[in-house]
Amino acid sequence: MAPSIGLSLPRIRLGGRDIIGSARFDFAAGRTTALLGPSGVGKSTLLRLLAGLLPLPPGARLDHSAHALTAWMGQQDLLLPWLDLLGNVTLGARLRGQRPDLGRARALIAEVGLQGREAARPAELSGGMRQRAALARTLMEDRPVVLMDEPFSAVDAPTRHRLQTLAAGLLRGRTVVLVTHDPLEALRLADRVLVLRPAAGGALPEEHPVPGTSTPRAAQDPAVMAAQATLLERLADMA
Ligand SMILES: Nc1ncnc2c1ncn2[C@@H]1O[C@H](COP(=O)(O)OP(=O)(O)OP(=O)(O)O)[C@@H](O)[C@H]1O
What we know:
binds adenosine-5'-triphosphate, 21% strand, Rossmann fold, single chain
C-alpha cells in the first residue's frame, strides 16, 4: 500500500534568498501530484527535501520516514557508463545483493521501446534512449513512492507522449510527485496539479483544478486543452 506524504516547512532560505515560504504540503496515498512553477522557484528543492536528499531544516517535519520505499528519477539519467542497459536496469537489486528478475527487466526494457538494446552501454544510446532506460530502472525498483524531477525533458515530443502514457499505467496506485515544466504533461498524468507561486518570503503552493479523474488524459480533450491554456497563462504571469 502506497503511503501518503506530508511535509511542513518553515521558510527555506538558500544562498541568502527566501526560496520556499512557510507551508504545508500533503501528497495523498496512491495519487500523482504534478508540481509546476517558474524556473528557479524551488520545485527541485522541494522534491529533494521529500526524498531526503537535502537535510530538513530546523522546524521542518516530514511525515514519511520510509525513504526506503522511494524511487527517484532525476533530470540526469545517472546510468553507470560501464554497465550495459540490462545491468543498469537491474542495478538496484544487484546493489542490495539480490538476484535481479531478468524477465521483468527485459519486459520493462521492451515497454520503454528499447528491446534489442539490452547489451548497449549508455554511450551507445541517444539522450532520449538513456532517459527511457532510466524510466525502466525506476520502474524496476517497484517502490510505492516515486519522486520524478522532469523525467521526460530530454526526449522528443512523440517519445515523451508515449512515455507519459506508459508511465501513467505503470505508476498507477503509487504516491508520485512529478516536477515538470510542461503543463500538458501535468494535465495528462496528474490527479492533482500544484503550482509553486513566487511570493515575498518564499514560494507558496497554489492548487489548480484538473479535468476528470482518469489518467492519462488525452491531449486533444477540449477540457485538457482549456486547462492547459489557463495554466500556461498563470505560469506566464509568474515568470
Ligand atoms: N544549495 C544551494 N545553495 C544556494 N542556492 C540554491 C541551492 N540549491 C538551490 N538554490 C537556489 O534555489 C532556487 C531554487 O532552485 P530549484 O532548483 O529548486 O528550482 P526549480 O524550480 O527546480 O528550477 P528549474 O525549474 O529551473 O529546475 C534557485 O534560485 C537556486 O539557485
